[in-house]
Design a protein that fits this description.
This protein has about 375 residues and is of the alpha/beta class. It is built from eleven helices and 16 strands. It is globular, with a radius of gyration of 22 Å.
């Protein structure tokens, strides 16, 4: 007989939200994770009083009030606003592209002047498009912001991030590029934004309060034994790994971090600086203390700082998968794995059991944090 209503594989956001909702409904859940910590990729580790984002910067932002109200049950959020800076060979530009950017780039001072420059560059670019429409990321970017901004602030960064020339990347990757004819450095166009005070690990720990969690447990290596513990499995790992890569592996981009503790109060004066030239090997540097305004939880100034240089790379087995490569080839392969998942559930149904594939890896989908939480809430409501 099963010991739990749910076995939840993965203690990241999807798994933690699902488990919390199950507990709230009076159900039992066991959460397991092969890592030695909870919170998945939003895990924060305290170093010298600084909450360091160990798997890359995570800034919570949403327009979904249901999700915002939900996360505020488990954390107090500060007022952090994401205002990254672009460094192109020592020239600094405001992101997202706004009037500060256009003034630095062209010397324009009014929205009309900025729009005129962009429009002129657009018209020139469109002449070279087949059928007058952008066919790749390079053409799409130029059609949005013109050649100057593309060359300095998009091309090098994007090619480092994806490991491919911009003219070989699909145009849809950059269709949401924020362009503003106002003086606004807020990267996210969201009603609610901030960082949980005390870090994401604390927030996830609050979600998992009263729920059994076992760390350092590899589900796929102990699948037969673990499956006996519950009739419903919630699996948030990679869907292709679940099926032993039997159809081939889905592709991801991975990220490597070089962390450095510095005996100084300020390295770059901002949480995120993107290095947009192609010569600099890293894509950006994160200075973690500025997510919480350089202060600890008591409001005292922090004397040291921690920085992380990020290097993007092609994923290979053994690496941490970060960004799905959502092109046509991988989309088709994912659909084939979805068919295997449906067949798996048909088989399990005969035994009175089921499996749910959820989250970024389980659904092979790029999710923002609020989307993961919303998906988990909706999934639990239907299961």
């Amino acid at each position: 007989m099963a010991q739990y209503d749910y076995l939840i594989v993965g203690a990241g956001l999807f798994g933690a939200v699902f488990a919390q909702q199950a507990k709230e409904e009076g159900k039992t859940a066991l959460v397991i994770d092969k890592r030695d910590h909870i919170a998945g990729n939003v895990y924060t580790e305290k170093i010298e009083g600084i909450n360091v984002h160990k798997y890359g910067a995570h800034i919570f932002h949403t327009n979904n009030k249901k999700v915002w109200d939900y996360v505020n049950r488990f954390a107090v959020f500060n007022r952090f606003t994401n205002s990254p800076v672009a460094n192109y060979k020592g020239e600094l530009y405001s992101l997202p592209f706004n009037m500060y950017t256009f003034n630095k780039m062209w010397g324009v001072v009014t929205p009309e002047e900025a729009e005129a420059v962009i429009e002129e560059q657009r018209r020139e670019a469109v002449k070279g498009f087949a059928n007058g429409e952008p066919s790749n990321l390079e053409e799409q970017a130029i059609s949005l912001v013109g050649k100057d901004i593309y060359e300095k602030l998009i091309k090098g960064y994007t090619e480092k991030q994806w490991g491919r020339p911009c003219n070989e990347l699909p145009s849809f990757i950059i269709k949401r590029l924020p362009v503003r004819l106002i003086f606004d450095n807020n990267y996210f166009n969201a009603l609610y934004q901030g960082i949980p005070v005390g870090g994401y690990t604390k927030m996830v720990a609050n979600m998992l309060d009263g729920i059994e969690v076992r760390l350092g447990v590899d589900y796929l290596e102990n699948k037969e034994e673990l499956d006996k513990l519950a009739d419903t499995i919630v699996y948030t790992g990679a869907i292709d790994a679940y099926f032993g890569y039997s159809l081939g592996n889905l592709e991801y981009r991975s990220v490597r971090f070089e962390n450095e503790l510095l005996d100084k109060p300020n390295f770059q004066g901002n949480a995120a600086v993107n290095y947009t030239d192609s010569e600099t090997p890293w894509t950006r540097i994160i200075e973690h203390k500025w997510f919480e305004f350089g202060k600890d939880e008591d409001g005292s100034d922090l004397p040291k700082t921690v920085i992380s240089r990020e290097y993007s790379s092609e994923w290979k087995l053994g690496d941490e998968p970060y960004y799905p490569v959502n092109d046509a080839k991988n989309g088709d392969l994912y659909q084939e794995y979805r068919k295997l998942a449906e067949e798996e559930n048909s088989r399990l149904a005969a035994e009175g059991r089921k499996i749910i594939f959820g989250g970024r890896l389980g659904e092979y989908k790029y999710y923002d944090m609020d989307q993961v939480i919303d998906a988990a809430l909706n999934c639990k409501n239907s299961n």
